[in-house]
């Protein structure tokens, strides 16, 4: 008798994760037996969690803050995109070994495609990315793979932005945080990957007047759904992309691996998560 597949999301803390709602929705939509559970594991216990999850009946799971780099270190096999980002957000067992992938890049680009139409890149030559952490690396990798000519990275700690240029020195430039408005006139796409604007954090206040009229403003923050940055962009008449699409799309490859069906990101799924964000606000 085969048991129903189980998957996890592991983090610390983990109780605010929306991933169980997303995967639970897809399990139900496809009439699949299976479960997707939150697991809270402190950093000191992460290595032993990895060694033990298969024995507890899990096929794999998602990895979130603060374990993405540790998962990269401990996985037995890595996809090319996980190696490139040096971080893992999706794990599964294959041939008895722990495999690690990173689906954040794919999630970000798919969210732009869904929100803007897949030809958004026609008018996008230069992107201005705010922040230089793990999320910025995924966003920048996606934009470079999509063929953008130039990415300017502005970060509070300039050295982190400068380190990121090693990714592709010909196409990435670092900018100091207090000089970022100088990069606005050439930005076809502005992406916030910092935590500014997130519930409980200070807002990201930027005068967007200097952005071109065709510019798109994206935020990877999704609580709240409309950040102060996106509200300002909307008021300026610009197209905006909120952070929920990235969360939904990055979940697709994991579900397909653990449960055997490739799910879709539909307006109905989005509405379920939006309702949860509003309920908990
Ligand atoms: P993640 O992996 O989720 O991207 P991270 O590595 O902690 O998380 O990165 C968070 C980003 O938000 C960084 O670019 C950080 O800037 P620093 O590199 O200077 O720390 C940025 N950030 C956080 N708080 C900020 C603030 N108050 N003002 C400007 N940038 C901020």
Q: What does this molecule look like?
A:
There is one protein chain. The protein is an alpha/beta fold. The protein folds into two domains: 6-103 and 251-280, 3-Layer(aba) Sandwich (Rossmann fold), CATH 3.40.50.10860; 105-244, NAD(P)-binding Rossmann-like Domain (Rossmann fold, 3-Layer(aba) Sandwich). Helix content is 36%, strand content 20%. It contains eleven helices and twelve strands. The chain has helices at residues 19-29, 46-52, 68-74, 80-85, 104-116, 134-145, 158-164, 228-235, 244-250, 252-259, 267-280; strands at 6-11, 35-40, 58-63, 77-78, 90-94, 97-101, 126-130, 150-155, 172-176, 189-192, 216-219, 239-241. The strands form two sheets. It has a six-stranded mixed sheet. Strand 8 (150-155), helix 7 and strand 9 form a beta-alpha-beta unit. Helix 5 crosses helix 9. 42% of the residues are buried. 2'-monophosphoadenosine-5'-diphosphate binds next to helix 6.
- Could you please say which CATH topology of the largest domain applies here? Rossmann fold
Largest sheet: 6 strands, mixed
Total domain modules: 2
Number of helices: 11
Spell out the CATH superfamily of the largest domain: NAD(P)-binding Rossmann-like Domain
CATH-scheme architecture of the largest domain = 3-Layer(aba) Sandwich
Helical residues, percent: 25-40%
Mean pLDDT: 97
According to CATH, what is the class of the largest domain? Answer: Alpha Beta
Major β-sheet strand ordering: 2-1-3-5-6-4
Number of beta-strand segments: 12
């Amino acid at each position: 008798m085969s048991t129903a597949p189980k998957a996890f999301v592991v983090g610390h803390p983990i109780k605010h994760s929306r991933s169980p709602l997303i995967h639970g929705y897809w399990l139900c939509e496809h009439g699949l037996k299976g479960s997707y559970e939150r697991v809270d594991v402190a950093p000191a216990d992460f290595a032993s969690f990895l060694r033990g999850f298969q024995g507890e009946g899990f096929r794999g799971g998602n990895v979130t803050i603060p374990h993405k780099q540790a998962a990269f270190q401990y996985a037995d096999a890595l996809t090319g995109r996980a190696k490139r980002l040096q971080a893992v957000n999706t794990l599964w067992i294959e041939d008895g070994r722990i495999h690690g992938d990173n689906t954040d890049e794919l999630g970000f680009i798919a969210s732009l495609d869904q929100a803007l139409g897949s030809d958004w890149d026609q008018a996008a030559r230069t992107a201005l990315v705010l922040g230089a952490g793990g999320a910025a690396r995924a966003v920048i990798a996606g934009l470079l793979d999509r063929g953008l000519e130039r990415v300017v990275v502005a970060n509070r700690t300039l050295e982190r932005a400068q380190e990121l240029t090693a990714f592709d020195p010909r196409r990435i430039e670092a900018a100091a945080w207090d000089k970022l408005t100088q990069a606005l006139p050439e930005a076809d796409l502005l992406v916030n990957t910092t935590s500014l604007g997130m519930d409980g954090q200070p807002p990201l206040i930027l005068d967007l007047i200097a952005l071109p009229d065709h510019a798109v403003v994206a935020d990877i923050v999704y609580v709240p759904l409309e950040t102060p940055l996106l509200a300002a962009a909307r008021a300026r008449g610009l197209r905006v992309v909120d952070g929920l699409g990235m969360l939904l799309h990055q979940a697709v490859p994991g579900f397909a691996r653990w449960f055997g069906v490739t799910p879709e990101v539909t307006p109905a799924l989005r509405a379920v998560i939006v309702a949860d964000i509003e309920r908990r606000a």
